[in-house]
Amino acid sequence: MKPLSWLGPLALTITGGVVYHVSAKSLPRDLNPALVLIGAYATALCGSLAAYVVLPADQAATAASSVLSPAVISVGLGATMIELGYVLTYRAAWPVSVAAILINSMVAVLLVVVGVAVFSERLSLSRALGLAMCLAGAWLLRR
């Protein structure tokens, strides 16, 4: 695997995550959470349209039916739940330095279980140790 083939998307995701969490923590408390999501998703739609124009696509994958597949709809529902969850978490005065790490650690733990149970992924010793570290980290963060 070429370094740029994984490094670019990783850097984009990390940068986006930092921008996202700093922005979500900085939202005015009196702004309706539903309006926050509407504004965020309007912005995301514009960014997605720009990416659609710029990124190369396989002709077969551009059919409208593939956009409305259950997996795509589930991604949208999951994203909405994540966004609303973080907005409400930060409104509940969770520290930005703790909330994201705690949530992502718990998601990692659950995804290991899902990976093994649903996708037949292997649970190696190193993954089991990583799982234990996530749980230990989540426990330490809440102390």
Overview of this protein structure:
By secondary structure, this protein is mostly helical. Helix content is 78%, strand content 0%. The protein has helices at residues 3-25, 33-54, 64-67, 70-91, 96-119, 125-141. α2 packs across α4 (70-91) and α5 (96-119) packs antiparallel against α6. The longest helix is centred in the C-terminal third of the chain and has 24 residues, at 96-119.
Which helices and strands occur, and which strands form pairs?
Layout: H1 3-25, H2 33-54, H3 64-67, H4 70-91, H5 96-119, H6 125-141
Helix pairs in contact: 2-4, 5-6
Task: Assign the structural class, choosing from mainly alpha, mainly beta, alpha/beta, alpha+beta, or little secondary structure.
Answer: mainly alpha
Count of discrete alpha- or pi-helical segments spanning 4 or more residues: 6
**Main sheet summary:** none
Distance between the termini: 40 Å
Estimated share of beta-strand residues: under 5%
Question: What is the succession of H and E elements?
Answer: HHHHHH
Average pLDDT level: 89
What is the general shape?
Answer: globular
Subunit arrangement of the protein: single chain
Low-confidence stretches: none
Give the helix level as a range of percent: over 70%
Q: What is the radius of gyration computed over CA atoms, rounded to a whole number of angstroms?
A: 18 Å
